[in-house]
Specification:
The structure is a homodimer of 210-residue chains. Chain A is α/β, with parallel strands linked by helices and 210 residues long. Helices cover 41% and strands 16% of the residues of chain A. In chain A, helix 1 packs antiparallel against helix 4 and helix 2 packs across helix 3. Chain A binds a DNA duplex (22 and 22 nucleotides) through helix 3.
DNA sequence: CATTGTGAATCCGTTCACAGCG
DNA sequence: CGCTGTGAACGGATTCACAATG
């Protein structure tokens, strides 16, 4: 069990990885922390500190080898082998996520959607992700080897579905419902509450004008 | 111009407001900070500190009047009068947001979607939100009096659309693209990067098992 | 007298600044 | 010589603990 890495560091490293991919595509082979900081509007010391949690990656007097750091970061963040994702709830949001680039790339692949609505079951999302019955979840999860789940269901169904996913071996959960999901042992839970984003916006607007 | 309120405080107050509504529906008229803290897994002192930024709301020896605090909070966060929202990008995500409860309630109302795809223009989302041409944005914005915009467009269109919205009087922007939107003067911007949530999850999983 | 509002103490992340090194 | 890696300083947010008070 590694010492905990802060949420902020995690996000910056994700951003950094994305940026490194772009630099690599541009053909840059080497980059200093100052360059990286400038490109991604961060502080150079912060980049070095973030990386220092995991070892030494740079070359003094030179900077970082872009391709090298990119692949090491990818491995560190658990993104080098693709993960199977399942989405529970085939409403508008669930369908949007299932077809989204964010959930289907080198690192993630949506294997199936699950819903309780008999009219949806058996059909597919636009890109072809099958919609199956939630009753099939327990068997399907182990068959697919899913490790990540996304919950796009009504608030009152969240906890039950989360526990079903956890029992089926899912280790990470993204909860999109407007009801925070209490911690589940052995599972990393991240609540993504859209209402909070929107209200945060109006809050700042209200504060700024008084 | 009020002194800045931290992001964390903002989120907690949103959550608190939501909780107060629930308590009010349950018929509770009074609640201590300890009770609130317990219900929403927070620290009671934190709740009091958060509220202290804005004045004194409680009654010593008693606690807080639920309905009273609820309405004061609502006003403070700029949620007492409904705001008009426009969504740019009528892809899966844009459509999902347009029909979502989070964007259509007492405080927010989606007036229209905008897209560049001629085949979509003129049609409507499932709940009836009209899809219009982005070329109409400038006129439409002032006509509708929209103050909030959501960007669900490809990364390379983000900045242009953001500037168009800003020019049309939009004061708050939610950006769902996987490319952070640099600050725009006079506009509050919130980047909501789904990829970051997903990667954050795998990162924690990778860290926990080493 | 129970509970708020708040100064003081603590914790944690960020920034600075420089020693160490390729 | 230039840039990394890092100990030390800083600052903001959380938590503690208690005096103030309806």
């Amino acid at each position: 069990m590694k010492s905990a890495i802060s949420e902020a560091t995690t996000q910056r490293l994700s951003l950094l990885l994305r940026g490194l991919k772009a630099l690599e595509a541009e053909g840059l082979t080497t980059a200093s922390s100052a360059l990286l900081a400038e490109r991604f509007s961060l502080n150079s010391a912060q980049i070095r500190k973030d990386l220092a949690h995991f070892g030494e990656f740079g070359v003094r007097g030179v900077g970082y080898r872009v391709a090298d750091l990119r692949s090491k970061l990818q491995a560190l963040m658990g993104l080098s082998t693709p993960r199977t994702v399942v989405i529970v709830g085939a409403g508008n949001l669930g369908l949007a996520l299932a077809d989204s680039r964010n959930f289907n790339n080198e690192s993630f692949k949506v294997a199936a959607l699950f819903d309780v609505d008999g009219r949806k079951i058996g059909s597919r999302s636009k890109t072809g992700v099958p919609i199956r019955a939630v009753s099939e979840l327990p068997q399907a999860l182990s068959a697919m080897g899913a490790t990540i789940g996304a919950l796009a269901v009504p608030p009152d169904a969240v906890r039950e579905m989360a526990l079903t996913l956890a029992a089926g071996g899912v280790k990470g959960l993204l909860n999109f419902a407007a009801a925070p999901l209490a911690p589940i042992p052995g599972v990393v839970v991240k609540n993504v509450d859209m209402a909070l984003f929107l209200e945060g916006l109006t809050f700042q607007l209200a504060s700024a004008s008084s």
